[in-house]
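Quick look at the format.
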Amino acid sequence: MEILQTASWPDIRAEHAIPTREARALTGKGARAGTPRPSHGDWRPAPQRRDPVEILTEQAADRVPELVPVRNGRMLASPFAFFRGGAAVMAEDLAGTPTSGIAVQLCGDAHLSNFGGYASPDRELVFDLNDFDETLPGPWEWDLKRLVASLAIAGRDRGFDDRERAAVVRSASASYRAAMREFAQLGNLDVWYSRLTATDVRNRWGAAAGRSASRTFERQVEKAMRKDNARALSRLTRVVDGRPRMKSDPPLFVPVAELLHHDEVVAFEDVVEETLRSYRRSLPAGRRQLIEQYSYAEAARKVVGVGSVGTRAWVVLMLGTGHDDPLFLQLKEARTSVLAAAAGRSRFDQEGQRVVVGQQLIQASSDIFLGWSRVTAMDGVVRDFYIRQLWDWKLSTDVGRQSPRTMTVYAQMCGWVLARGHARTGDRIAIAGYLGRGDAFDVAMTEFAELYADQNERDYELFMDAAREQRIKVTLNV
């Protein structure tokens, strides 16, 4: 399978050579001949498909050893939790699926829990993708298939029947398709400036969600807008001798002083300082000047997410004008994308830079402190990190409480956002031409989602067998 890695655009001086909208649309329609839209509905495991437990064990080999059982325990919580943590498993599966040959910048892990709200630099609450650990250029279909499969699996977890799940999945695909047609009609700048704010969500989906869901959304927005650095200070620190010090909640949140001996803490803090110096160089001049007004105070190791558990993640407390002027940064290890084996390695040498650039390409607006660093750790291993604020109006959806009606609305929001990210980075006109006006592709996505949900349940059973047979270590309820 040949994957188009980058679009080949003509010299902008040769205006007559710029492909017309009609030509680009025909390119997309022409791709149907080689890859008919119904073909996307098929899913069959490859004859030599690897054991998912083997893939996950291999992936965990260089993670923090004492945290790997926590990851395994979180993945055992449900088939949906397993799916969240199993991006590497699906990445290998997606490599063998049909594609139209049109590349975009992929999120790489676009399941429904990796969408959410956060503050834009102009202090609007925006809804967007929010996890880019696996971002790479690749076929747009991979992100969409990851999304629709997650909806089918989450629907099963919630007890939705076949018809309800099908409606949810089709709504996501139809929303993606309609949004891509919408973006295909816009100019480049209009696409780039497009975003989904809390106000847009109310206006566009409030009526469909219903009064109860709309009231819940308003409460979530209000709560999210209180989730900032000041809130983090009150939640994550305590005052000791007049100074804020990180609280301890092992193994989820552990201050450095509890992880290392005293002499090691000094060496660790030297590494952190070097990391921050390297990180500042990745920021624009204005942001660099701002971050330089803060000083390092303390750090703690934090367990994050499901699939990321065991990767190195640190929360760093910085102080500005005083103890009541905090800035919390999250330093998260950036590793090779799980898509790299199929889509090719990143053009960036630093994995942190890969994550940051991918995020800035896809998101409508990104955290002002988003940057990257490479550092030689205390164990002598060179590691890459990306860095951003820990909390800045963070809003997430509780999938476990969604009804078929609200998940259908949520699926439409996710489909719109995913299309917007792909429209910014790939040939939106060709993708729209490929998808067309009818529902042929939506039907295929519904079929694929159910077939892959079946596969995920089989994989989950194998993972549970490995836990029962003690072939993997497990820590539950953490």
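Next, a different chain entirely:
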Amino acid sequence: MKCGLCLAAACLTRYDGWFLAVAMCVGALAVVVKSNNHNLRGSFAKFVLLAAASPALWLAYNAAIYRNPLEFANGPYSARAIEQKNATPGFPAHPGSHDLSVAFSYFLKSAELNMAEGNWHRLWVLLLLAGTTVVLMFNRRLWPLLLLWTPLPFYMLSIAYAGVPIFLPVWWPFSFYNVRYGLQLLPLFSVTSALTVYFLLGFARNKTAKTAVVSTALILLVASYASVWHAQPVCFREAWVNSRTRIALETELATNLKKLPHNSTLLMYLGDHVGALQQAGIPLRRTINEGNHRPWKSPADSEGLWERALANPQQYVDFVVALDGDPVARDAQKQALASLVVIRTIGQPAATIYWTHGRSSDGHPR
């Protein structure tokens, strides 16, 4: 029951949990079949129901709201749709697309980069393989630890067939994107390394040999930490590289939003830069955003609040925030709006704040 509840929570957190739930159910089934204990079958049924509850709930929600149970997988905000939108004609969508071997290499490399810099991570891979071999060959009771490998096939399949890219600074396209996914193999590195050291200590016949094993493990550990400390953790570098221009834009936009009247209302697309509202201390209830669209109304919802506000901003809000290329900039009727400020930052779309109460005859805001 406890394990089933944990899996249900994992499934509500990330789709990785779905794959883990399947792997755990297969493992539990093997235990039930091997034990031939009829009492376990009832517990196994409860376990499977708990593990399947969250995915079933999410599928039902998508079916009810979007009229498509797989909206999260093939809808306009899915990883596949985002990949297709950003794809460059004539070039592969991303490394590993429709290629499981390349997908395997990129995910494992992301895990290595999270462990150590330089060539130190190769030693961690050797320990990982050695620890896995120890489990497989010498202790069947430890086989459940092999479930720590579960992220590997999940991300291989996700990269190859689900439109999930991983960009690494050391491999083409020499960038940072989703490198953090490699963190999911850190428990595997930790456990298999510990098992390898434990196994070697068991073979050591004297104190000198045991001291050598422990010393080597400690040197590897310290050297790995030192290399990561010197270069900064790769996940931190990913976050910094991918957010610095965004932070600059959102900070400047928030500074201008703070100058607006305290009770004013906004029309804004929040999918990309909701952080500006957070910094400005503006609650979402004072905005009309894409969350006000009623997705169950398809193919269009002309009577929805979001659509009505785009068609006639003056009737619904005091100010309009449009970022080049977003739905507000593209679809909102801004002919009668007064532009108050245009914010431009390197690497980000320009942001314009409009006043909805029109212009005077000389073209200036009333």
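The longest strand covers residues 338-343.

See the schema section for token definitions.
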